[in-house]
Design goal:
Blueprint (H helix, E strand, L loop, with lengths): L4 H22 L1 H10 L1 H10 L2 H44 L3 H27 L8 H19 L3 H4 L1 H13 L4 H27 L19 H14 L8 H31 L6 H10 L1 H17 L1 H4 L3
Length: 317
């Protein structure tokens, strides 16, 4: 006779994740914390039990969310949290280094989002991740009308540069949506892993391999070839008005690679601030880099240069 305890524990862990998901949907402030913790029971599920039990437990939780929040809620839970949480647990059981787990975890997160997008579009006819430029322009116009009413007669003219910049953003967002999806998958995976690792450590459960200190992050030199490809693709594009598949591939690849260079540049900056005993100012420096475009560009160039010169290994006298 088979031991029923693994199946029961799997169902309980997945049910706990479903409850946290329902709380995240119902309570505005507490829900943010619940959403961050939601994948943790699923990570434990993947760590402690077989893939078969993990899938059965997640299926039970999916049924619970369908009962209480409808089919769309069950779909978002299963593909948005279930696949990633269980996937991270299974990967953590197989690999010993956080880098490997996160790399494959990003692929799992991206695959689950693409599957969610496809299923939701097929069922409802509406892509939940799509960006409607017309709706965004309407919302922007309403916001500017409201601000203009508060600011008096001179407000509309003063807001014109902001309006023009936002209009340009609306034109580019549909083109870079694949890159945004990749970065959202990476952020989602990293958050789920980091929060799960902290919670498991507090509970005294089996620990996840620690994520390397941000100051030590370093990407391979082969990224330079990806950057060059992102610059060449638009030149080879044969689509109408420069909007063919090569143009889109180039602009999305450039955005992802530039973000990686920016992260490496910020890691170099953080390492030197720590070495100069200004470590407490790192978050202030990171905020300034993200807030001001010229500082972001400088950090990106620093990240590219670090690929070749490895400033952190050279140290500072």
């Amino acid at each position: 006779m088979h031991d029923p305890r693994p199946l029961v524990e799997s169902a309980l862990l997945a049910a706990l994740a479903a409850v946290l998901f329902l709380i995240s949907s119902a309570l505005p402030l507490v829900g943010v914390v619940a959403a961050l913790i939601c994948p943790t029971p699923l990570v434990v599920l993947g760590l402690r039990h077989s893939l078969r039990h993990a899938i059965l437990g997640t299926g039970v939780a999916g049924i619970l969310t369908v009962i209480f929040s409808g089919p769309l809620g069950g779909l978002f839970f299963t593909l948005g949290f279930g696949v990633l949480g269980v996937g991270l647990g299974v990967l953590a059981k197989k690999y010993d280094h956080a880098e490997e787990i996160l790399l494959y975890g990003v692929l799992v997160s991206l695959a689950s989002k693409l599957l969610l997008m496809g299923v939701a579009t097929a069922v409802t006819g509406i892509n939940p991740f799509s960006v409607d430029p017309d709706q965004m322009r309407l919302t922007m116009q309403q916001a500017f009308d409201l601000v203009g009413g508060w600011g008096g007669q001179g407000a509309p003219a003063a807001l014109e540069p902001v309006r023009a910049q936002m209009e340009a953003s609306f034109q580019i967002i549909p083109l870079i949506f694949p890159a945004l999806l990749v970065m959202a998958g990476a952020l989602d995976c990293w958050l789920s892993y980091a929060v799960s690792a902290a919670v498991l450590q507090r509970l005294g459960q089996r620990r996840l391999p620690p994520i390397p200190l941000f100051d030590t992050w370093r990407f391979p030199r082969s990224l330079v070839w990806a950057l060059l490809a992102s610059l060449v693709f638009p030149l080879l594009d044969g689509g109408g008005e420069g909007r063919g598949i090569l143009f889109r591939a180039g602009i999305n690849l450039r955005m992802v690679v530039t973000m990686l260079f920016l992260l490496q540049g910020m890691a170099v900056l953080g390492a030197f601030l720590r070495r100069w005993r200004w470590g407490k100012l790192r978050w202030v420096a990171f905020f300034l880099v993200m807030a001001f475009p010229f500082l972001s560009q400088g950090a990106t160039v620093l990240g590219i240069a670090d690929l070749w010169f490895d400033f952190r290994a050279r140290g500072v006298e």
